[in-house]
Amino acid sequence: MEHGSLNDPSKATFSFVDEDHTLANSVRFCLNQDPRVSVCGYSIPHPSDARVNIRIQTTGEPAREVLKDGCQNLMLMCQHVRGTLDKAVADFRMNNPTKMETKSDSEMET
Amino acid sequence: MNEKENKGGNNDEPNKKFSIWDLPDVPMGQLPPHLQLQKTRVVCKADAPIHTDNISYSGAYASIGVDNSVHLDLFRDNFKVNVIRLTKEDMEFDMIGIDPALANAFRRILISEVPTMAIEKVLIAYNTSVVQDEVLAHRLGLVPLKADPRLFEYLSANDTPNEKNTIVFKLHASCKRGERRTVYSEELKWLPKGSELIKEAGQADSKPTTYTSFTCSQDVLPEFSEDPISPSEDKIILAKLGSKQEIELEAHAVKGLGKTHAKWSPVATAWYRMLPEVVLLEDVEDEVAEELVRRCPDKVFDIEDIGHGKKRATVARPRDCRLCRECVRGEGWEERVELRRVKDHFIFTVESTGVLPPEVLFTEAVKILEEKCERVISELS
Asked: Where does the record place the DNA-directed RNA polymerase RBP11-like dimerisation domain (chain A) (predicted)?
């Protein structure tokens, strides 16, 4: 849900339901790194409601587009994280084939 | 001298014109070292840490001409993952080049938003033990079940329990006269064909129905035929029985999130810490070095001989530092040792309860964050 003005699409507050710090902080971080954003922040009006308000003010571009791009970037970052982790786990397993032991063994260091 | 550009116009005397770009200590495009320290390290002083906030705003250093924006390619080049330890139950790995916002998001999702299966409804037929019904049901709910939650669907209030959203267990334990006995979680038997308790039917001529309606047996599925569903630990104590006491019950497990109840959390816990960096600001020698090595309970420091009978302290294992701050407590120590944390290097530890292997859990958590973003994007479009 977007609360903005009809005349000025570069400033808006987006209200998300059923979200909390998990998504809001990550999106805020991604948006802050975007050079088109002049102000970006989030707030949780009341902790009992699962609602989050994200405020975006840009240097001219419509805030909705910038938010979409920020979420897109966040998705790509997550995909990259997943790929890197899978590769790292595969490399670790290749280099340490005997270290997949059960819980009865004590902690081992590589 | 008079031909230099005048930037800013701060003229005290009309003949003194200078340009800030000629000053040697502001290199173009790079932060000066004290700002670089503020941006990338948390300094843990003896009383409190400083520089704890993350300067992620793209225009933070615009006044000195440094661009703080990060493009996706830069993130991709800098991001690294090193796995330190990986067993069936827990995993420790390093993530380098990521921001605390993302690391915390992954941690929060791991604890509360990765779905699992846990016992929700307990149909108690007979319970004469000293453990009350509700206490026994609560304990059963907390038992972690080794069932892949991705193969099941959620059960909502108006759905019928069927083989796609419910797992049924049976527990029937009794104790002989004159003995005492402990009931362990290994006695929870999986019923792949569904519930066996018959409902009290109103009409006498209708077929007796049970509490679930399984259309096919669950062990037909290939994942379950070799690896039957069971609690992930065998020796969890559920109840203790005395002479001639008996428990007979049926437990139905459904899919849920840790947000609703902690029994659905797939990790015992998951945490991260930033990589410690211990820096000796000046040469620490002889007795002071010995004292430093003695002070640290984690054996972070070591003594090395530099000849002529003199000894010097070095930082041998900074990763083991647990920030007890013993090395900076007392007079004069803060000038010798500085404790820092690297802001973008996280040491993640994930301890699974046995539902899924820890690396699969982390991958699921990342996927869930991606799904949240997708939902936001589709709502906006």
From this structure: 12-82
